[in-house]
Structure formats: structure tokens, C-alpha cells
Amino acid sequence: MGAAVRAVCAKRMTAYAEKQTAITGIGQSKISRGADKSALGLTIDAAMEAIADAGLTRADIDGMATWPGDRGDGSGFSDVGIPALQDALRLKLGWYSNAAETAGQFGALFNAIGAIAAGLCRHVLIFRTMYEATARKTGFANALNRPGERVRGPFAWYAPYHTYAAATQQALMFQRYIHESGIKPEQVARIAINGRRNAGLNPAAVYRTPISMDDYFASPIISTPLRLFDCDVPIDGSTAIILSHIDAARDGPHPVTHIDAVGSSMHYRNSWTQLDALATQAQPKVAEMMWSRTDLKPKDVDVAELYDGFSYHTINWLENFGFCGRYEAGDFIGDGSRIALEGDLPLNTNGGALSAGRMHAYGQIYEACVQLRGLGGDRQVGGLPRVAALSTAGGPLAGCFLLVRA
Asked: Which of 355-376 are b and which e, b meaning 16 or more Cβ less than 10 Å from the residue's Cβ?
């Protein structure tokens, strides 16, 4: 594995824009189930930490990106957009991107790669802020519609099935996956149990008490077959990263963390309700694109930070990344030892969204950088990992990429 990684780092093919960028700074606010600061205050905390971590000042930041932008609808899903943060930090920007219709939750990252490659900026502040724990008091957090609101647009397809929450929507697709794969409930449970074990070693995680197999099966069904522990945890918090041109990144205080390859394709119908493949969602072609842009292979990956908005997503990504064959994730997971911190493929090392908190895959970016720098403390993967695989949600919003420590 080491020789393959070194060959990739030495080659640094110039054909793809992502290979000219690197993550130079990371920052994260306090993650909680009820913040004592505003959403903007949490975002400022994360942004300032990331800027300092990159060895930069606010004057160095000439680009900003976020996903999906300020919604301002009271859901807490995205309470901070670029205008508010740019003004708060008094940044002078040459480029910014504040839009939802991008390549899934990693769209902000992918847009920033393009902007840097185009010469529009050198250091991009990327952030994702969630304020759903506080918003839950209104009953709207993580719901597809407000109570009593008329159903319209694509949500009309859900109405006959009373699918007003993401858990109910994804349960329909997970049920199809179970039917086709034959995965056992005990194998599904290992995703949540492993995440909670890792969260117990992460002081920043919101849930750290270990759970057993009995605890998992004693938890309530949210929407068959999803149980409580299969669903991520709404939180208040913000994560920020600094993406820099590779030439500028070499002057930073930390070893360079390259973005080696991205997957952002849309070869499917862009619809949550009219997907071509319900069981696999849009992930296979996205992963195929990513692997086509690197010399690395699944066997080279040292740590996997795979989206776990629901345990179903993580299971699906194990297959679609090629870590195992189609419908073989259950056997791959087995008794959980393979995905443990000491295993062949350590998975969601900070506890993931299921236990550390729902940061919409940006928490996984932060954690991957922590692992590649060897700063994970009690949860640090042994041998100082060099390659991390990351992914975002399923449905039509799939995206993925590889991080490589030089």
C-alpha cells in the first residue's frame, strides 16, 4: 500500500483540477444538543479556528463556499449563508458559492476546487452549519414539510405514503435493499454499535455511552426497518475547512493533505422519488468516476469516513466504493471487527453522524484530516493512515472523494 500511495503523491497528475488543491486548515465549533450561541456565532468559531489552523489570517481568504446556503426557514438545516459570515469576518472575496443545486453536500468543496483551478482564488473558506437541535423546539427540524403545510412539488410524491420525514423516505429505499441483499439485522446493528464505540473515545461527540446489541434491538422503530440508533442526531454546530491551491498549501504549518480524486457525476434522474435504482441510489456511478481519476484502489484506503445520516447509507457506500461486492456488505461487516478502529477498514472513527452528531458529511472531512495528521488521540487509527475515503448522502445527492496525506 505504501508504495502505491507514494507513487500517486509523486505523480500528482495535472489533468484533474482536484490534484491542484489541498486542505490546509480545519476548524469546528462546539457540537451540542442545544447551543449557548447563535448559529452565526458557532460558524465564526469554526471559521476562525480553520483559518488559524492553516497558518493564515482573514486577509488571506479570497474565496468562500457553503452548502446549501442560508434557508432562513426555521428548520435549522442551514441558518448561515455567505453574506452573513462574509460581513461578520469582513472578508474581501474574489469568488463565492452559496447554492444548493450542486453535487450534493460536497458541492461546496467541488465548486471551490473549480474556482481555485480557474485562478479565481487561492484560499477558500468552506463551512457547513447546522442548528437543528435548537430548531427541534418548533417541530420542524429534519422534516420535509411543516405541520399543516400544503404538500407541493416533488413532495407530492411522498404524500400517499405519509412520508413527511427523511427517515420515512429512506426507510422505503432501505427496505428494498434488505429485500435484494438479505442483510441481517445484526449486521446492520454493527454500524451503530461501532460508531458509538468510537464516539466514546471522542470528547466532542454528543453521545458517548456504549450501546450493545440488546440496546440496539430494544430501541424503538422509527420507520421500518430503521431503528432509533440507525438515525443520525440533530445538533447545533459548525465545521469549516480551508481549501488552498497546492502551491500555497506547501507553505502551511501542517503536512499537505491532497484531494486526490472526486466523484460528482449525475448519471441518474435527479429526483428523490424517481430514482433509477432505489436500493443502490446514485452512488455506484459517483464512485466509478472517482476511481477513474486516481491510481489508487480500494485496498489502498486506510480509513473510511462514510456518510451515516442513516446506517443504510454507510452500508451502501461500502459496496459502491468497492470495499466489498454488491450485496456483500453484511458479510463484510460481520461481527464488526473489520470496521473497528483496529480492523482492516476503520469506519467513522469519530462516531459519525449517528453518535458524534449530524454535520452532513463535513464532520467526516474534519475527522479524516484529524486521522491523517495523527491527532485522533484515543481514537487514532494505528500506523498513521495515508489515504481516507469520504462520501456524502445517497439519493441523487451522492458525492465522494479521496484524501491523501503527502
From this structure: bbbbbbbbbbbbbbbbbbbeeb
Cα 76 to the center of its chain, rounded Å = 18
Whole-number Å distance between alpha carbons of 110 and 93? 18
> With contact defined as beta carbons under 8 Å apart, do 394 and 283 qualify?
yes
The confidence score (pLDDT) of residue 11 equals 52
Which one-letter DSSP state was computed for residue 380? P
HSE value, Cβ hemisphere, 13 Å, CA-based, for 102:
21
| DSSP label of 197 | H
How buried is 148 (Cβ within 10 angstroms: 0-12 exposed, 13-18 middle, 19+ buried)?
A: exposed
pTM greater than 0.85: yes
Summarize the confidence of residues 9-29 as an average pLDDT.
82
Letter string b/e over residues 190-205, b meaning 16 or more CB atoms within 10 A of that residue's CB = bbbbbbbbbbbbbebb
Dist. CA 401–CA 189, nearest whole Å: 26
> CB of 19 within 8 A of CB of 295?
no
